[in-house]
């Protein structure tokens, strides 16, 4: 969290201090039954990939060539990763030359790191991937707040950042991006910015401007510098409208006409859900099942009560986070929130879709809010959420813990093998490796869910081919895929999932999307080889154009993904 204007450092109202001491007490892991995963066989495994990659992973994006672009911010001082010899150092007024990298490319296959030069400040920025696989990265801080940066993946070491200094109409710091059905990116919100715009720039019907005022963003900003509407949650609905969630409120928004189509009920409870009361959100899998218009359901978890940021930032009193999640079936005629309870409170957790259709909640803390030095009591245990279990009390499964606290500015993304890449954590204004108990983290870990255990190898499909031209899938197209499977269990069935890789930062997985395609035919070609006929996504509102991970799932065990292009 940036330092606030002194005029905003108002003493928090006295009535807030009287809410109840238990609200502000620091919880420890012993307060919650999280010492053992339940059931034990689902606990998963943690692997330390690198003790240091030289840069703290504030932002991450998986690219179509199995490389991950990782970057931090430019005003932390030198990183621990040098720029290549001969690369120009970054020169900024009144600051020493910076000859270290604040961005890098991580190769999933080789495990190697290549430093990248970024010239403008990417702090608390946003991103999305164009249909051609190019990362469009927007905004940041100071000299970076109106910058658009492009990174096009390549198979050699020639690809670098390209920066468009005045690519944005408004400054975008803590904004959210979403890829649209026509391939454009919408950029919404930011600190004290109540507008949205597009990249490439374009106009809304009946309005020749390139930036559009959105009153909902102003209405959802709290007083006392809490804000609680930064990094709004955006999800593209199958009807082409946007679901927008900020603070505690949510709307269905027609971005083409700049109008609110519908306002949904306020999520129940006293907790705020957006930065700095940072909860997280996910669009649950879209299941086609013979329909071109699937049901769409959004889930929001975690957060903090009103005033929590001021309590932690001003008084160093760390309020207990929310342990609640809400589900809203947006496509229902009269949607209503259905609330559930997690095994523990969570703030700053990432919610990542797994190819099984389950959701993993990972990283974060149990007390405080997002911001520098504003949280304590890390949540070491991820939690698996099984949305389709008919017994609500069995939907949450506590998983094996990491040994590394992942606090403010940590990230997580899904990888093609089905594991979760986890990095970052720097709750300090600069890199601080001696801070206790939460030093700056430069490490990278992988969390491997239970389905990657060797015991399930016979049930794990291995994709041989996707029979479509250039691995491209057209809307409405039926295509074939072949795979090897050593132990087929007909009663468990076969499913196919497309998952769009997310741009993840600050517990927001932008553009994350899972579409479960319809399998119409299954043929056995040999003892262990099978062929399936699959109906592609019907429209770009269901699956926006671009690159997706293509998984075949059998008996709850996913294959290693291959990349396909939806167009």
Automatic annotation (TrEMBL):
<dbReference type="InterPro" id="IPR011043">
    <property type="entry name" value="Gal_Oxase/kelch_b-propeller"/>
</dbReference>
<feature type="domain" description="Glyoxal oxidase N-terminal">
    <location>
        <begin position="58"/>
        <end position="451"/>
    </location>
</feature>
<dbReference type="InterPro" id="IPR037293">
    <property type="entry name" value="Gal_Oxidase_central_sf"/>
</dbReference>
<dbReference type="Pfam" id="PF09118">
    <property type="entry name" value="GO-like_E_set"/>
</dbReference>
<dbReference type="InterPro" id="IPR015202">
    <property type="entry name" value="GO-like_E_set"/>
</dbReference>
<protein>
    <recommendedName>
        <fullName>Aldehyde oxidase GLOX-like</fullName>
    </recommendedName>
</protein>
<dbReference type="InterPro" id="IPR009880">
    <property type="entry name" value="Glyoxal_oxidase_N"/>
</dbReference>
<dbReference type="Pfam" id="PF07250">
    <property type="entry name" value="Glyoxal_oxid_N"/>
</dbReference>
<dbReference type="InterPro" id="IPR013783">
    <property type="entry name" value="Ig-like_fold"/>
</dbReference>
<keyword id="KW-0732">Signal</keyword>
<feature type="domain" description="Galactose oxidase-like Early set">
    <location>
        <begin position="460"/>
        <end position="566"/>
    </location>
</feature>
<dbReference type="InterPro" id="IPR014756">
    <property type="entry name" value="Ig_E-set"/>
</dbReference>
<feature type="signal peptide">
    <location>
        <begin position="1"/>
        <end position="28"/>
    </location>
</feature>
């Amino acid at each position: 969290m940036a330092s606030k204007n002194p005029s905003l450092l108002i003493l928090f109202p006295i009535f807030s201090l009287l809410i109840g001491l238990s609200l502000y007490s620091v919880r420890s892991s012993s307060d919650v039954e999280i010492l053992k995963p339940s059931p034990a066989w689902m606990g998963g495994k943690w692997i330390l990939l690198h003790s240091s990659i030289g840069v703290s992973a504030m932002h991450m994006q998986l690219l179509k060539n199995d490389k991950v672009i990782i970057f931090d911010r430019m005003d932390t001082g030198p990183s621990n990763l040098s720029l290549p010899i001969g690369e120009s150092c970054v020169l900024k007024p009144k600051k020493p030359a910076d000859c270290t990298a604040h961005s890098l490319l991580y190769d999933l296959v080789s495990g190697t790191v290549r430093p990248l030069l970024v010239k403008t400040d990417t702090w608390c920025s946003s991103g999305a991937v164009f249909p051609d696989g190019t990362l469009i990265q927007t905004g940041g801080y100071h000299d970076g707040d109106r910058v658009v940066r492009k990174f096009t993946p390549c198979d050699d070491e020639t690809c670098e950042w390209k920066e468009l200094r005045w690519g944005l109409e408004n400054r975008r710091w803590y904004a959210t991006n979403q890829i649209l059905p026509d391939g454009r990116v919408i950029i919404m919100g930011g600190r004290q910015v109540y507008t949205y715009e597009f990249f490439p720039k374009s106009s809304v019907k009946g309005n020749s401007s390139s930036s559009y005022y959105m009153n909902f963003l102003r209405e959802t900003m709290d007083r006392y510098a809490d804000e609680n509407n930064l990094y709004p949650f955006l999800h593209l609905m199958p009807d082409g409208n946007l679901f927008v969630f900020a603070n505690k409120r949510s709307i269905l928004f027609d971005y083409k006409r700049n109008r609110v189509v519908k306002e949904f009920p306020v999520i129940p409870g006293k907790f705020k859900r957006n930065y700095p009361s940072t909860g997280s959100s996910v669009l649950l899998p879209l299941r086609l099942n013979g329909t071109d218009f699937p049901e769409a359901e959004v889930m929001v978890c975690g957060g903090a009560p009103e005033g929590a940021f001021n309590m932690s930032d001003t008084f160093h009193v760390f309020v207990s986070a929310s342990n609640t999640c809400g589900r809203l079936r947006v496509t229902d005629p009269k949607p209503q929130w259905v609330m559930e309870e997690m095994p523990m409170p969570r703030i700053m957790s990432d919610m990542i879709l797994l190819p099984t259709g389950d959701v993993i909640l990972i990283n974060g803390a149990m007390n405080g809010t997002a911001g520098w030095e504003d949280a304590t009591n890390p949540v070491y245990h991820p939690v698996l959420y099984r949305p389709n279990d008919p017994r609500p009390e069995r939907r949450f499964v506590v998983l094996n813990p990491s040994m590394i606290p992942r606090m403010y500015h940590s990230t997580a993304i899904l990888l093609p093998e089905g594991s979760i890449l986890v990095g970052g954590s720097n709750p300090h204004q600069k890199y601080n490796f001696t801070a206790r108990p939460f030093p700056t983290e430069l490490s990278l870990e992988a969390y491997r869910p239970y389905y990657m255990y060797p015991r399930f190898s016979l049930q794990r499909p291995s994709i041989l081919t996707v029979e479509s031209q250039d691995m491209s899938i057209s809307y409405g197209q039926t295509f074939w895929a072949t795979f090897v499977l050593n132990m087929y269990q007909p009663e468990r069935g076969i499913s196919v999932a497309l998952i769009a890789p997310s741009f993840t930062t600050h517990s927001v997985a932008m553009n994350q999307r899972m579409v479960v395609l319809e399998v119409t035919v299954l043929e056995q070609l040999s003892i262990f080889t099978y062929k399936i006929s699959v109906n592609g996504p019907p429209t770009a509102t269901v699956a926006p154009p671009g690159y997706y991970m293509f998984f075949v799932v059998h008996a709850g065990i996913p294959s290693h993904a291959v990349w396909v292009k939806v167009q």
